[in-house]
């Protein structure tokens, strides 16, 4: 179930951000795995957060980027928008591949995982801020309030052609965020690369996160539970 997880004291280091998700840090990859991963995995995203999440999950994967014009795909409904964008990313990557290479007899299956996330604040879809003014307006709006995130994840089995997708939602509640912190974040510039300018795990932001309902990895771009479920199902598809 989803319950508000309260942070009693703000984490002091970046690495402690994962406490938010209520998950123990994963074992380091130095311990050899008993059996190698029985499939190939491609992450269709250049997002550092998504790479980190798949690494934490213990997967081996390669990265390919979709390079689609996200703003050319418009929908009022966030659920519909993120699924369309995640599918469009998969289609763009597949269009550059020779799919028959992945369908040879006896080869390991290859899965492609793509995803998209939007932030919804007071019923309005927030994408990457396009100006300092817009970033400031977004962040001031979150101060003392809350936002929802809607993430769409699509896993395509390139070997069978089957495609599975699903949604994951979370909410983030904020304490009041001082103007000085907002200006620091804008000057640093990283807010312009993320949906809604929302950086849950950023050391400047984390102390002002009151609670997360749902999983923080979902807020950061990819729900581990959902990714695991879809990968498992795609291997059977």
UniProtKB/TrEMBL annotation:
Query: Keywords on this record?
Result: Hydrolase
Q: Name one GO molecular function term.
A: nucleoside triphosphate diphosphatase activity
Is tRNA processing one of the keywords? no
Q: Does the keyword ATP-binding apply?
A: no
**Name this protein carries in UniProt:** Maf-like protein
Originating species: Aegilops tauschii subsp. strangulata
